[in-house]
């Protein structure tokens, strides 16, 4: 399969000025990994609460912008990703480089934590299936063929 033939996954869209959030990392994985990294550095740097981190990060934002505890909570829970100004301020507050917070590729520590296989019932004859796992391209193509009803 050539590079052009490879289907593009749901990339993480970074709305800020940098392109740190790579399209090589699925959005769901990036959300979880970013949150894990924020929490890890928060603990390592001695922040005792999300509110403390929010106050510190707010000091590095332009006038009129701020962080609050809920924003930090959303990052840690994997709900949202920051824009450029907030990413920069958060990195400064944690005293780390921005690229230490941002997942550019899947790491060995990311995959086991973020693999999710969920099956739920839609109706009597239908299931909703969600699989979030790195697989070889040949496996991905076979799965897509099955989902499209192609027996090949």
From TrEMBL:
Signal peptide: none annotated. This is Helix-turn-helix domain-containing protein. CDD domains: HTH_XRE. Residues 71-101 form the HTH cro/C1-type domain. One of its GO terms (molecular function) is DNA binding. It comes from the Bacteria.
């Amino acid at each position: 399969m050539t590079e052009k033939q490879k289907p593009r996954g749901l990339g993480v869209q970074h709305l800020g000025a940098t392109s740190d959030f790579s399209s090589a990392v699925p959005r769901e994985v990036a959300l979880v990994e970013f949150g894990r990294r924020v929490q890890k550095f928060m603990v390592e740097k001695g922040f005792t609460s999300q509110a403390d981190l929010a106050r510190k990060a707010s000091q590095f934002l332009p006038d009129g912008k701020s962080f609050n505890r809920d924003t930090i909570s959303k990052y840690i829970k994997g709900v949202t990703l920051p824009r450029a100004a907030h990413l920069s301020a958060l990195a400064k507050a944690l005293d780390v480089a921005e690229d230490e917070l941002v997942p550019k590729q899947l790491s060995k520590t990311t995959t086991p934590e973020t693999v999710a296989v969920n099956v739920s019932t839609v109706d009597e004859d239908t299931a909703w299936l969600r699989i979030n796992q790195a697989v070889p391209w040949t496996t991905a193509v076979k799965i897509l063929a099955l989902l499209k009803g192609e027996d090949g």
